[in-house]
Amino acid sequence: MVNMNGTLVENQKKIIAIDNRGLNYGDAVFETLRFSGGKIYFWEDHYFRLMASMRILRMEIPMNFTMEFLEEEILRTIDSSELKNTTFRVKLLVWRKTGGKYTPSTNEIEYAISFEKLDAPFYIISESEYEVELFKDHFITSGLLSTLKSTNRLINILGSIFAKENGYQNCLLLNENKQVVEALNGNIFLISGNNIKTPPLSDGCLNGILRKQLISIIKEMPEFILEEASISPFELQKADEIFITNVIQGIVSITKYRKKEFGDKVVKLLLPKLNLTARMG
Length: 281
Description:
- By secondary structure, the chain is an alpha+beta fold.
- The chain has two domains: 2-118, Aminotransferase class 4, branched-chain amino acid transferase, N-terminal domain (D-amino Acid Aminotransferase, Chain A, domain 1, 2-Layer Sandwich), CATH 3.30.470.10; 131-280, D-amino Acid Aminotransferase, Chain A, domain 2 (Alpha-Beta Barrel), CATH 3.20.10.
- Helices cover 26% and strands 31% of the residues.
- It has a six-stranded antiparallel β-sheet with strand order 2-1-6-5-3-4. The protein has a five-stranded mixed β-sheet with strand order 9-8-7-15-16, covered by helices on one side. The chain has a five-stranded mixed β-sheet with strand order 12-11-10-13-14, covered by helices on one side.
- Helix 5 packs across helix 6.
- The two termini are 27 Å apart.
């Protein structure tokens, strides 16, 4: 089932208008959520990020769009599934109502909630090879709009095609200043000795929910020094470990970049703390 503006509709019957602004202009934002153990991971962070994104895009936030209302709508949608005690990937999509061209006729919004089954009930470490390369055909523009989870994802799509065609598991994206910003599907962290580094939001990286959680966790670990600073491509091969974070997979260790192979010692320290935070949060 899919929740369309509060009405549950069977998947095969869901209808989006041809003049939908999200479809025509990318005038939409979304949250990708992980539901496990009867709860939405980091729901408060997701909710406030969504509200901030809608305000930045000048969307009109309905009075009933409270954290409690949206959580109830998500849970009601999940409850329509016949799969009980299951882990789900949930997508909450918000777009501006139909009308106008580049200039909208209204700032009022509509929304949809959908979900799909996930296998692992908690975050795990994959032992599979995970090789990445830089994607240099197009660049992310540094600044506020790039930090939003909007439906404007052409660079991510083209980078994913490049990775698939060349046998890579992921690609790293650069901004216009040739700084490493993020991966195709998540934020990036570099570990060198006891220093852990991640790009700042000002470089154009996504304002990731797991990025925020890992920053908080690392700051509580006195053996590490966390730095939010620009990352040059030249730093990649000098790192001891590199990992990617997103709310669905948790932490993904990069095993190889060009001729350099990486370990996952620190990732194995962080993952139990992340799982504990997810369950407690």
